[in-house]
Design brief:
The chain is built from five helices and five strands; from the N terminus they run E-H-E-H-E-H-E-H-E-H. The chain has 119 residues and is an alpha/beta fold. The chain has one domain: Rossmann fold (3-Layer(aba) Sandwich), CATH 3.40.50.
Length: 119
């Protein structure tokens, strides 16, 4: 199962990458939404884990573009506490789930596994 981890903070990508790799997932990384769209087209991940607030292209715009490229794309958005309006906008744009930073490892794994197993 391939996961594209999208976050502008390298340490967050590394932390998530270590967690998911230890649980059998194959990871690719992108540091903003534009890079995510590009890597999505070549990497074709099963799931995208997308930060919302990033430079160049934010996560909401990236989710919309990914849905345009693949209406069945499975995206989990990551957001800081207190960004409820952004989460709702991301869900309307096509995200399937969300997690709140700082994230709980079990909650993150549960969100990924739910999408991996049930779409």
């Amino acid at each position: 199962m391939r996961v594209l981890v999208v976050d502008d903070a390298a340490f967050v990508r590394a932390k998530i990458g270590r967690l998911l790799s230890a649980n059998g997932y194959v990871i690719e990384e992108a540091e903003n939404g534009a890079e995510a769209v590009s890597k999505f087209q070549s990497y074709r991940p099963d799931i995208v884990l997308m930060d919302i607030t990033m430079p160049v292209m934010d996560g909401i715009a990236a989710v919309r573009e990914l849905r345009r490229l693949d209406p069945g794309v499975k995206v989990v958005v990551c957001t800081a506490l207190g960004q409820r309006a952004m989460v709702l906008e991301a869900i309307r744009a096509g995200a399937r789930d969300f997690i709140v930073k700082p994230f709980d490892n079990e909650r993150l794994l549960a969100a990924i596994e739910r999408l991996a197993n049930h779409g």
